[in-house]
From TrEMBL, chain A:
The active site is at residues 128, 384, 414. InterPro entries: Thiolase, Thiolase-like, Thiolase-like_sf_Thiolase, Thiolase_acyl_enz_int_AS, Thiolase_AS, Thiolase_C, Thiolase_CS, Thiolase_N. It comes from the Eukaryota. Pathway: Lipid metabolism; fatty acid metabolism. Residues 43-298 form the Thiolase N-terminal domain. It is found in: Peroxisome. It catalyses: an acyl-CoA + acetyl-CoA = a 3-oxoacyl-CoA + CoA. It comes from Dactylellina haptotyla (strain CBS 200.50). GO terms for cellular component: peroxisome. GO terms for biological process: fatty acid beta-oxidation; phenylacetate catabolic process. Its main location: other. This is acetyl-CoA C-acyltransferase.
From TrEMBL, chain B:
Keywords: Cytoplasm, Peroxisome, Protein transport, Transport, WD repeat. The keyword Cytoplasm applies. It holds the Pfam family WD40. GO terms for biological process: protein import into peroxisome matrix, docking. InterPro entries: PEX7, WD40/YVTN_repeat-like_dom_sf, WD40_repeat_dom_sf, WD40_rpt. Belongs to the WD repeat peroxin-7 family. SMART domains: WD40. The keyword Cytoplasm applies. This is Peroxin-7.
Length: 429, 274
C-alpha cells in the first residue's frame, strides 16, 4: 500500500504530501539533454558543403558567375549525400548583390546541377545573413509540413556584382527620417564610428584579425577545410598572360601565412585618417557558394541517409542601423533563451567576422570563451561572400563539431541596416 | 481563446460531457490537493466565454471525475477522503449518492464506455473498485496491493479493466474470471530484449533522475481507441511506453521528451496511432 511505516502516525495531509512529492524525483532533464534528444519530427542536416572562397576581382573564381558556383555546390550535395534529387522539394538561395537576388539564374543553376524541374527554387535577400536565412526558411517549411526535404543555400559573386550600385537610392521620404536614412550609411563608415564609440582599440582589432589568419592558416595546412569544400573546375583568365585556362579550385585563396598583430598594425586605415579599420581587420571581398541539405529526421531514416546533425531553432533581432555590428550580441542570447541552454553549453560559436571590431565587441560583451569562437578562423582570413556566408558557416561549424566530437554549435552574424540572426545546431556524428 | 480561472482551486482533471459539446466539468482541489476543500465546476461554453453553470463544494480535495454515460446530468467525482460522490447538476449543493469504501485517496474514476451501467475507481489503498450508480456498495473489488493512480475500462470490451500503480506494474483484469480476475501483471520498466535505446538511458543520469530500467511509479495510462490490445502508460520516469497485450513482455515503443513526471496521457479518439 502507500503508507510508510514512519508516516502511519502523521496527519493525513503530511502523508499525502509525502506521497505526491515522491512522484517528482530528480530534477527535470537539463535543457541541454532536451536539446540533444532525437525526435522523429526534428529537422536534420544530411549534408553541408561549400565551395572554396576566393578573392573578389582577382581570385580563382573571378571569371565564374555566381550561379555557376551555386550549380557546383548543389551538384556536390547530390554527389556526396547520395540523395535522389527528385526528392528535394524546394531550394532557397540567399544572395545579396545579384539583380533580383539571382532568382532566375539560380533556378537555372539547380537544373544544371541535376535537379528535375519539379524541384522548386527561390532566391532571398536578408543581406549578410541570407545564407542562414535560407537554411532557416527551409527548416521552417519542413517543420510546418510544407515540404519534407529541402536545401538552404547561399551564393555570391562579389567579383561580378559588387560595386557602387550595391546600395539603392533613397526617396525623399526615407531621407527625411533620421533613423531610416541611417540604413544607407556605408558599412565601413558606421563600423568605424561604432569602434570609436565603443572604445574598441586598433590594437585589439589587429590582434583578433591576426588570430583569425593564424587559425585559418593552420586549419588549411592541416586540411581541416577539405571535408567541407566541393572542388570546382572553372575557367580562369590569367591577368598577366591574358590566357584562359581550366583550373580546379579546392582551397580558399585569401588565407595568408605569417600574419601578426604587428604586421597588421602597419596597414593604413581605410575609412578615416585616424580610424582603426583597414583591409586586414575587416572581412575580405570574396566569391563563393554553400548549401545545406535538410529534411525531417523520419524521412532521413526512411531513406537510410546519414545524419550529420540537427537544426534546433533560430532568432532574429533588430538593432539601431548605425550599430548594425552589434546584431549577434542581440540575437545570440535570444536564440539561447528559446532553447533554454546557457552560453556555456555551446561548444562552438561561428560568428561572422564582418569587422574585427564588431565581432570582438559582441564576443566580449556576451562574455564568450575566446577559444570557442571561429576555431578555424573567419571572414577576415578567407572572405565574406555576402549571401553565401550564412550557409558557409554551417558547413564549417558542422565539420568542426564533428572533428572535435563536440555537440552544440551556434552560428550568428550581423546584418546591414541593423539586425542580427543566430541559429543553434547539434552535431550527431 | 476562452479561459476560465478556478480561483483558489487547482484543477486535477477535466472532462467534456458526452451529451453536450458545450459543457465540461473540472475537479479541483484547494492548496494543490495537499490539504483543504474540493470543488466540482460544471462549465458552459457560451458566446460570452466560459461560465460556471454550477459548482459543488466538497470536504476534501477532488482528484478526478467521470460523466455518466447513461444520464446527461450526472457525474461522479473521486475525493481525497476515500469517497466517491455522484452529483446531479439539476440539483444544488449535495451529492445524490456517496460511496465510502476506499481507505485512502481516490485518484481516478472512469465510466464504462461499453456497458455504460458501471464505473470504476482506483485508490491509494491498493484497490480498484467497480460500482453501479444504483447500488449502495461496490460490485467488485480488484486488488493491486499498491497505490493505484489510474484505472480505465477497455473501450472495446465491457468486462476488461486496467490499472497502473506505484509498484511499476500495469494490471489488466477481466471481471468474468473468478477472483482475483487478473489476466496481466506487466512490469512496465523491464527493458526490451535489445535493451533501452541508449539516448533514453543516458538522459539525465547522475542528476537524481530515476533510472528508466528500475521500478518507478506509473501515474497514468490509456487504451488505444482503435487497437483493442494496445495500452500506453507514463509516470515518474518521464517516458511514455506502449504495450501490446498479445505480447506484453516488453514495450512496443518508448516516447521520451518530457522534462517532468507525466501526470496524464490520453490516446487520441480520432487517430489510429496517436
Amino acid at each position: 500500500m502507500c503508507e510508510d511505516a514512519n508516516l502511519q502516525s502523521s496527519p493525513p495531509s503530511a502523508q499525502r504530501l509525502s506521497q505526491l512529492s515522491n512522484q517528482i524525483s530528480g530534477i527535470p532533464s537539463a535543457p541541454r539533454d532536451a536539446l540533444l534528444a532525437k525526435n522523429p519530427d526534428d529537422v536534420v542536416i544530411v549534408s553541408a558543403l561549400r565551395t572554396a572562397l576566393t578573392r573578389g576581382g582577382k581570385g580563382w573564381f573571378k571569371d565564374t558567375a555566381g550561379a555557376d558556383l551555386l550549380a557546383g555546390v548543389l551538384k556536390g550535395i547530390i554527389d556526396k549525400s547520395g540523395i535522389n534529387p527528385a526528392l528535394v522539394e524546394d531550394i532557397a538561395v540567399g544572395n545579396v548583390l545579384a539583380p533580383g537576388a539571382g532568382a532566375t539564374e539560380f533556378r537555372a543553376a539547380a537544373i544544371v546541377a541535376g535537379f528535375p524541374v519539379s524541384t522548386a527554387v527561390r532566391a532571398l535577400n536578408r543581406q549578410c545573413s541570407s545564407g542562414l536565412q535560407a537554411v532557416v526558411d527551409i527548416a521552417n517549411q519542413i517543420k510546418a509540413g510544407m515540404i519534407d526535404i529541402g536545401i538552404g543555400a547561399g551564393c555570391e559573386s562579389m567579383s561580378q556584382n559588387y560595386g557602387p550600385g550595391a546600395v539603392s537610392e533613397f526617396s525623399e521620404l526615407l531621407e527625411n527620417n533620421v533613423e531610416a536614412a541611417n540604413c544607407k550609411v556605408p558599412m565601413g563608415q558606421l563600423s568605424e564610428q561604432m569602434a570609436k564609440d565603443k572604445g574598441i582599440s586598433r590594437a585589439s582589432q589587429d590582434a583578433f584579425a591576426a588570430e583569425s589568419f593564424q587559425k585559418a592558416f593552420k586549419a588549411q595546412q592541416s586540411g581541416l577545410f577539405d571535408e567541407e569544400i566541393v572542388p570546382l573546375t572553372v575557367s580562369f583568365e590569367d591577368p598577366k598572360t591574358g590566357e584562359t585556362k581550366k583550373i580546379t579550385v579546392s582551397k580558399d585563396d585569401g588565407i595568408r601565412p605569417n600574419m601578426t598583430a604587428e604586421s597588421l598594425g602597419k596597414i593604413r586605415p581605410a575609412f578615416a585618417k585616424d580610424g582603426s579599420i583597414h583591409a586586414g581587420n575587416a572581412s575580405q571581398v570574396s566569391d563563393g557558394a554553400a548549401a545545406v541539405l535538410l529534411m525531417r529526421r523520419s524521412k532521413a531514416e526512411e531513406l537510410g541517409l546519414k545524419i550529420m546533425g540537427k537544426y534546433v531553432t533560430a532568432a532574429v533581432a533588430g538593432v539601431p542601423p548605425l550599430l548594425m555590428g552589434v546584431g549577434p550580441w542581440k540575437a545570440i542570447p535570444k536564440v539561447l533563451e528559446k532553447t533554454g541552454i546557457s552560453k556555456d553549453d555551446v561548444d562552438i560559436y561561428e560568428i561572422n567576422e564582418a569587422f574585427a571590431s564588431q565581432c570582438l565587441w559582441c564576443a566580449n560583451e556576451l562574455g564568450l570563451d575566446k577559444n570557442k569562437i571561429n576555431p578555424k578562423g573567419g571572414a577576415i582570413a578567407f572572405g565574406h561572400p555576402l549571401g553565401c556566408t550564412g550557409a558557409r558557416q554551417i558547413a564549417t561549424l558542422m565539420t568542426e563539431l564533428k572533428r572535435t566530437d563536440k555537440k552544440i554549435g551556434v552560428t550568428s552574424m550581423c546584418i546591414g541596416t541593423g539586425m542580427g540572426l543566430a541559429a543553434v545546431f547539434v552535431n550527431e556524428v | 481563446m476562452f479561459s476560465f480561472r478556478t480561483q483558489g482551486y487547482n484543477g486535477y482533471n477535466l472532462k467534456y460531457s458526452p451529451f453536450h459539446d458545450s459543457r465540461l466539468a473540472v475537479a479541483g482541489s484547494a492548496n494543490f490537493g495537499l490539504v483543504g476543500n474540493g470543488r466540482l465546476y460544471v462549465l458552459g461554453l457560451t458566446a460570452n466565454g466560459i461560465v460556471a453553470e454550477k459548482t459543488f463544494d466538497t470536504q476534501d480535495g477532488l482528484f478526478d471525475l467521470a460523466w455518466s454515460e447513461l444520464h446527461e446530468n450526472q457525474l461522479v467525482v473521486a475525493s481525497g477522503d476515500g469517497s466517491l460522490k455522484l452529483f446531479d447538476i439539476g440539483l444544488n449543493d449535495f451529492p445524490i449518492q456517496t460511496w465510502q469504501e476506499h481507505k485512502r485517496e481516490v485518484f481516478s474514476v472512469h465510466w464504462n464506455l461499453v456497458d455504460k451501467t458501471t464505473f470504476a475507481s482506483s485508490s491509494w489503498d491498493g484497490t480498484v473498485k467497480i460500482w453501479s450508480p444504483s447500488h449502495p456498495t461496490s460490485l467488485t473489488t480488484l486488488a493491486t496491493n499498491s497505490c493505484t493512480y489510474s484505472t480505465a475500462f477497455s473501450p472495446h470490451a465491457p468486462t476488461i479493466i486496467s490499472a497502473v500503480s506505484s509498484d511499476s506494474h500495469l494490471r489488466v483484469f477481466d471481471t468474468r474470471l473468478p477472483p482475483p480476475h487478473a489476466i496481466h501483471q506487466i512490469p512496465v520498466h523491464v527493458p526490451p530484449p535489445g535493451g533501452y535505446p541508449v539516448e533514453l538511458v543516458a538522459q539525465g543520469v547522475g542528476m537524481g533522475n530515476p533510472r528508466i530500467d528500475q521500478p518507478n511509479e506509473i501515474l497514468t495510462h490509456d487504451w488505444n481507441k482503435y487497437r483493442p490490445e494496445v495500452i500506453a502508460t507514463a509516470g515518474v520516469d518521464k517516458i511514455i511506453r506502449t504495450f501490446d497485450l498479445r505480447n506484453p513482455r516488453a514495450p512496443l515503443s518508448f516516447l521520451g521528451g518530457h522534462n517532468y513526471p507525466i501526470r496524464r496521457i490520453a490516446v487520441s479518439s480520432h487517430s489510429y496511432c496517436r
